[in-house]
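Final report, closing paragraph on structural work. Over the funding period we assembled a curated collection of sequence-structure pairs, and we close with a single example.
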Amino acid sequence: MSVLTRDEAQTRAQILDVERYTIALDLTTGEETFDSRTVIRFTARAAGDTFVEVKPATLRSISLDGQPLDPALLDGNRYPLTALAAGPHELHIDAAMRYSRTGEGMHRFTDPTDGETYVYTQLFMEDVQRVFAAFDQPDLKSVFSIDVTAPEGWTVLGNGVAEHAGEGRWTIAATPLVSTYLVAVAAGPWHSVTTEHAGLPFGIHCRRSLAPYLDADADEILDITRALYDRYHEKFDEPYPFDSYDQAFVPEFNAGAMENPGLVTFRDEFIYRSAVTDTERQTRAMVIAHEMAHMWFGDLVTLTWWDDIWLNESFAEYMGYQTLTEITLPRALHSGSAGEAPFPDTWVDFGVARKGWGYDADQRPSTHPVAPDPDAVPDTASALLNFDGISYAKGASALRQLVAWLGEKDFLAGINTHFARHKFANATLADFIDNLASATDRDVHAWAEQWLRTTGVDTLTAEIAAPEPAEPAPNGTGNGQTWALAVTRDGSRPHRITVGTYDHALGAQGGPGHLAPRDRFELDVPGDGTPTIRPGRRPALVVLNDGDLTYAKVRLDTASWDTVLTSLSGIPDALTRAVVWNTARDMVRDAQLPPAAYLAAARTHLPHETDLALVQGVLSFAAGQVVDRYTIPEDLPAARATLTDLCRDLIRRTEDGSRPGLRLIAVRHFIDAATQPDTLRTWLDEGTVHGGPELDPELRWRILTRLAVLGATDEAAIATALAADPSATGREGAARCRAALPTAEAKAAAWDALFTDDTLSNYLFTATAQGFWQPGQEELTDDYVARFYPDAIALAARRGPAIAEAAGRYAFPAYAVDPMSLGTGTRALEDPALIPALRRKLVDQLDDLRRALAVRSAVALAD
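Its predicted structure, as stored:
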């Protein structure tokens, strides 16, 4: 299949105006294919040659202006339109299209719980060609009219209001001008909860087997949706540009969500079958906020070419977190009271859960600017690689720094100018910066060059001079002393940061070494090189980037770091604690802080942590990276004991039921870290953790997976559990357990399912891969390390980018932390058969492996 190049897209955009697509989809023709009939009305500005894209199972007929064309001329995914005359044209294409099991194109899923079938589209980048013929590029916007024939009893959803004409025939209201990749259809026997807000129909939808769980959360989801809608209308001058707002929670979805105008699709894990924490509910709310922001930035105004994908994702990421922090809800939510913000500061969750994603991506060989040079994104295959922590987390961080520097009023004024100038059209980075510049006297163009066109992470280091005598300050805080702060910068970007200073608070309540804030002040880095002189004795702790308003690694001075080790949990503000924990995380990754020291800090301070996002983030890094990858083998027993003791302590501290979210996090991590099966078996047999919670499906499968890893369960027990929970998540749980069993037979069967069979759906593939590689099973899996590379390369070529990404992410031998594994992987990068999606994942994984080896080497040298 040919990928579209930027040059081809520019040429086609100069030739064509596309006025309207009229599409008829018939979903009643079988389980493997569906019928797709497309009429495209377009105008050629001048005579010439072009092409239309389509990826059919069978191309039955094609005609131009009433004249039949030869279907055999289809070349891969392109049908040539040669000697096209200037003027209006009408193209008809009739094809049978394949359903997908990989989350690309028209995905088809049959629910094992009740046998009901659902289909939905995911047309991002170039997958529209799997559903209907199109001039498939973002700057050829058009009107789309879609009719769908579906089985009786199904409901059809689309970008506009869908009306049922009887006998399974549905008509979806025509869209305004939108890009091809934003067209959406979802069909099946949906369970729906509908309402109306601001004169528009709103709906939330899921498969029937999840109906009780959606109903339990419907008020919360709709309250958040309405509050966000209202808040965006306070921010944006342009009204919501579509005729309805549906949110469909769909099965086996590859992304978190997709911003299809009027029909946002979400992975249906956001409909919770099992207990979750308030932080997880906050994440769901943030995704809702992120996708709604796209209605303006991405859907109303769309990028011209994929080099500007950050304009979509960075904006939605920033606006989602910021707006969720601002909204209030009419109902009490969890422990909050009516009228209060429903969640704690969402920027804490961003700092600990998302920002590290950006930092990590920006330090790999595959890094790229937030806004890459257009020549660096020559085609759609290369564009797909930029959906990463840079385009999301780093870009959002850059925008947050821009708002801190520019001011929110001017920022929003520039955004509204951007919407007004480019609504229902396309725009570039240059357009965006020009529109921001129109609202301020600051040099936004220079800022963009420094922040958006560069790569890498700056490091800001605090240097504090000894106190010197000084006159007492008028408020008495000087005490005849001053201290001096100098900030050095390793990097090139300007930063406006807040510096926070803290003193020990004697006798105060709190965690170990409770600290009290002294003051905060702004600082521009780099300055003129002159240290900042502050009155009073030297603070116990000086935190650069307090408030986390810039994107940079931070290094504390020695005395402040000593304070952190004893008093981290005593810092009063959660966002400040997030900055400090991220500093510790960066230092471990940079081999500047021993893994054991990070675990010791977690053991000391997490029992006193009040923010669930921080507990979850620190524990996840401690377990998944510090213990499983960075700790040398001889230190592993002590590291695992520390992690287990920490989880046990958290469980003990929550026995009174006052903090169910914290207890749930601790129980999950205790299960995953367990080295002995006895406690887990008792919980599973009794159906409850002593003192709660009772085991729900998620905890049962988590326990059974760990017992499988430990060799303390068998195929019969897995089959019994699956019979008790025959849902889609039950099937995934069983696949994960079977692949985790420590037997040669189980590993061979799992490997065959992953790399030979080709029948696993995207989710079952992921679950099997997650189960296969387990720390401590190296004797069983060592021989598969070398096999992974040729098998994954062949698999990616057969099954395409979505499975390639899953193989590179989940099936990679991440726990084989040794030079031989690194060498084998590095040599595999030379294979010309590597498709871009898999190559990018392998480059990133091998760089993480190289970093893990460097950390282990530093520990071994220190010992």
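Confidence is low (pLDDT under 50) at residues 334-341. The first strand starts at residue 16 and ends at 26. We thank the funder for supporting this effort.
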